[in-house]
Amino acid sequence: MANKVAIVGVAQNAGCESKDNYYDQAYQVTRELLDKTGLKKDDIGTFISASSDIFHGGISCANAYYWETTGAFLKNGSRQDGESLFALFYGAMRIMSGHYDTALVIALCKGSENPSNESCTLMYADPFYQRGVGLNETLAAALQMKLYMKKSRITAEQCAKVAVKNLGNALGNPYAHRRGRYSVEDVLKSELVADPLTELQVAPKSEGIVAMLLASEEKAKKITKKPVWIKGFGSSLDSYILGDRDLLNGQLRNAANRAYKMARITDPGKQIDLAEISEPYAFQELLWMEDLGLCSPGGGGKMIDSGKTEKNGALPINPSGGVLANNPYVSRGLQRAVEAVLQMRGEAGERQVEKRVKTALAHGTHGFAGQCHAVAVLGR
Amino acid sequence: MARPVGIIGTGQTKHGKRMDVCYPELVREAVMTVFAETGIDPGDIDGVVSGTMPSMMEGIALTHFYFADAMQASGKQILKTETCGSTGVSIAHTAYYWVASGMADLVLAVGHEKMNEGDSQATMTTVAEPFYQRFFIAGAPGVFSMQSQMWTDRYGIPEDKLRDAAAYISVTHHNSAFDNPYAHIKIRVTMDDVKNARIITYPVRLLDVCPNSDGACAVIFASDKMIRKLGKKAAWVKGVGYSGEEYYFGDSDKAVWQAAIQAAKQAYKQAGIRNPRKELDVAEVYNPFTYQEMLFYECFGFCDFGQAPDLVLKGTFGRKGELPCDPSGGTLCTNPIGATGLIRTAEAALQVMGKAGDHQVPGAKLALAHAMGGVDQFNGIIILGSEK
């Protein structure tokens, strides 16, 4: 990779409903990031945001709303729709192109002002065949979970363990929206949302403004002593019609392989020290781990049983609590990257893992049963 | 500096009221056209940039999901760029940076809109914030009429001259649309027709304003290395500029419009342009409203502030003038919004590649394409040249 790009600062806000308005929240997080990095607004080269009109409180053209409050006034910028890791990739590309030496990347979603995630994601369904039957992301995930349990012999208990682990991890995360000590039984007995998914296995609807400052190699050294490098990134989009797709062999492998190739990762299970995976539905953490090559195909269940993915296990997955604990829909991918950065810098507070993290992975997904995936590999 | 990047082909649908095709078919029409024109196999594309207007206008959210197959994007890397009306140029920018970063050699950029199946003006009213401004914003014409009046008042432009200049622009663009096989509105109008057309929001009349079009556009961006390997002619990206300003409409000056001025400045600096009227051979200015087009001429430095109506009436920006603007008929005759900025880019590329057919500006070597969006808030520019 010709021009190296570093993450030199991160900031985020809490996932629970805030009394502050969206505009002020966007300002506060931007302000915090600038203060942490010691830069002024005018020092920033370019601005890339991520937001989505369907998740934007009834305001269309979301980027119009927050342009100046996130410091982008009269700056060259752009916006990515739906998945915030896209904004990280685009910001990195702008620096790699040589046009800019700093990029402010910010993801914005105020879930408390949106309808339910199911209502929003129903709008992904085409209006002729799928929307009428009420297909949304949660129903698509329930279908995928049934298939996964049947074909890969994953048990309901193994899926529930993901929620137990992640909501427990979230006890150490001040930004988490939902947290608690639950048993497998608690999870399985929580309200049925879409068979076999129960409430504690479905991510909440959270607020989240998540910001990150990217810099070129030369600039990074001037800003921080602890740069985290973007080693590789990749994405992949699947076909649209749910019934046309193999829900257990989706595009995540493809996205991961692109990121691994760029980062020169050949054995992800060994070379990746920690992963923050987007698991809006508990079982997806197991399925995505398989697709990411962090365990063997079909080995997701055994992996959670082994305890390796616990906060202080051999390969911690979602020590932040993941998306199950905090789900600002659009911002969740970038939030995974922010959490990975905090772990690598040793700044994760109570949720800091014991092992030394040299290489970490951040993953984002959106669309029915993971129609689109994005993967970033970060390194010290 | 950045690696050279060029456009090697463009594909447009026949724009208009396209009730003969569904939305994915419309997208596919543009995408397959660019593949046929360039001979590139969809399998060779490294990444796809998709973009459109807000979900309320589309009737479907996060449209890259729905159009994955129509864009031949299944299994591909994807970026989804949206910046309101300026989306089309922002899509082009994204494709440009992607290739310039060295992360891809061939990127497909796709913009689309099926406006006859949505309600564009209702959607645009929801861009304004819901507490103070939304009740006053009656779709796009309301905002742009206010801007036109601010500009007219600032420079004391006499009403007769203003209406003459606006009518002149409308007549010439409507004539030009007959030379563009993809254009939507093809009608012959006279100066009197324009001046006596039904008022939409003063001073904007029906023939001063763009239509609701269905249309899609696909453009392939390639690296220098790939262009050499393919042995293709290219329209080279010489400069990119983008700028955005305050959300609250009343917070900024819309006559001396900084977002437009700064976007042009950035692009000119990269392209080494000092005197745009002299150095540019053609410009595809985003002109949904005749009055606004004149304001853009001034903000882009094509002439001094307050001077545009005089120069328009002299024919300076006509097809045979010093700097022909919108020889395609422009946005005034064709406006599938999510595609429009990319259509401007495609038209600029066609001009510098000498492929614009009946609306070719003879010998065009350097072209500007532009799009505008938000609550009169964003401007994006891309400059293309025949030489690397």
Structural class of chain B, by secondary structure, is alpha/beta
Give the helix tally of chain B: 15
Largest sheet of chain B: 9 strands, mixed
- Sum up the overall morphology of chain A in one term: globular
CATH C-level label of the domain at 5-115 and 206-223 in chain A: Alpha Beta
Strand content of chain A: 15-25%
- What is the CA-CA span between the terminal residues of chain B? 13 Å
The total beta strand count of chain B reads: 11
The CATH homologous superfamily of the domain at 5-115 and 206-223 in chain A is called: Thiolase/Chalcone synthase
Helix content of chain A: 25-40%
Percent helix of chain B: 25-40%
Rg of chain A, alpha carbons: 19 Å
User: In what range is the share of β-strand residues of chain B?
Assistant: 15-25%
CATH fold descriptor of chain B: Peroxisomal Thiolase, Chain A, domain 1
Which terms would index this structure?
heterodimer; A: 380 residues; alpha/beta; Peroxisomal Thiolase, Chain A, domain 1; nine-stranded mixed sheet; two-stranded antiparallel sheet; 14 helices; 11 strands; globular; B: alpha/beta; two-stranded antiparallel ribbon; 15 helices
Compile the SSE list and pairings.
The complex is a heterodimer of chains A (380) and B (388).
Chain A: E1 5-12, H1 22-37, E2 46-51, H2 62-66, E3 76-81, H3 84-96, E4 102-110, H4 117-122, H5 137-151, H6 156-169, H7 184-189, E5 192-194, E6 197-198, E7 207-216, H8 217-223, E8 228-237, H9 252-263, H10 268-271, E9 274-276, H11 282-291, H12 300-306, H13 322-325, H14 332-345, E10 359-366, E11 372-379
Parallel strand pairs in A: 2-3, 2-4, 9-10
Antiparallel strand pairs in A: 1-7, 1-8, 4-7, 5-6, 8-11, 10-11
Helix pairs in contact in A: 3-14, 6-11, 6-12, 11-12
Chain B: E1 5-12, H1 23-38, E2 47-51, H2 55-58, H3 63-66, E3 77-80, H4 87-100, E4 106-114, H5 120-125, H6 139-155, H7 159-177, H8 191-195, E5 199-201, E6 204-205, E7 214-223, H9 224-230, E8 235-244, H10 258-271, H11 276-279, E9 282-284, H12 290-299, H13 308-314, H14 330-333, H15 337-353, E10 366-373, E11 378-385
